């Protein structure tokens, strides 16, 4: 199996590559980045991280001879053989560098113009290869996913815009609040919270409070609490960036979330009996929306989105989803 990480010399791309490389020792990983030397530095380090399997403490449960390679290509030099053709899954983290106006809430939109150009170029590159499931991380991820889909000519189900970190963040905040309500019951773990999030990866997130459960039981929040929960989810990634001296963004939650999605894709998909996962995919009438890409519940197979699940939403959730769609359409110039 082979995963291509486009933007693999950067923070998120290299973190995804590390997570996948250690989880799947035989996986071939290619890092595509115009900063090829930087990517090569990651590739050498990553390959050595796999070599711990040669030590007794590595306790290899696989043949050392099956260790996958970690290689580098410069996407601007028409690499041959084409790594897009070789890939079983692709992750796109290619992005303009973070600018000073990307450090505040809403900052994901500051790289819109340049990242749409990068997406158009990547789409042209992808177009000559067979459709391959592609997880899009570069911000603003829903708009970039949409542009990449349009430029590639691949089926819409090939594209999955990544927004799952928000689901992890809201679970943490809900667990804290529910624990504080009844301290005598002990702490609730975020792992016991289910609160899917639809909509934009940004200000227009749509937490589905009508389906939220703790330990499998429905849980209610007053409107004031909902506002505070939303505020936490929107703000915390920017707090993380600031705490790290305005350097890297949330590489660990993002790297782990993407690696889980790629792992499921390589295994042939998600369990159709399990809860669907919320990822951004181009819509064609689902939820009454067309010509826009935003997060909705999906079931995955080995090619990408096998099914978009249409949940019954409350009036407020539906209106919020429509507002998210409007905001995304507007910034893409689609009215
Ligand atoms: N969807 C999400 O939840 C998250 C999205 N992000 C976004 O992911 C993107 C990447 O973030 P970082 O890794 O921190 O940025 P970074 O600046 O460390 O890495 C971006 C990499 O893309 C490369 N690149 C630029 N143009 C390229 C092209 N045409 N082809 C291939 N590579 C190209 C750059 O050389 C650089 O190495 C950003 O847009 C960031 O906002 C980051 C975290 C979470
Ligand atoms: O703005 C960023 O690069 C970080 C981001 O999207 C996130 O962590 O959700």
UniProtKB/TrEMBL annotation:
The keyword NAD applies. GO terms for molecular function: L-lactate dehydrogenase (NAD+) activity; L-malate dehydrogenase (NAD+) activity. It is an enzyme of class 1 (oxidoreductase). It catalyses: (S)-malate + NAD(+) = oxaloacetate + NADH + H(+). The active site is at residue 201. NAD(+) binds at residues 7-13, 33, 115, 137-139. Belongs to the LDH/MDH superfamily. This is malate dehydrogenase. It comes from Natronorubrum daqingense.
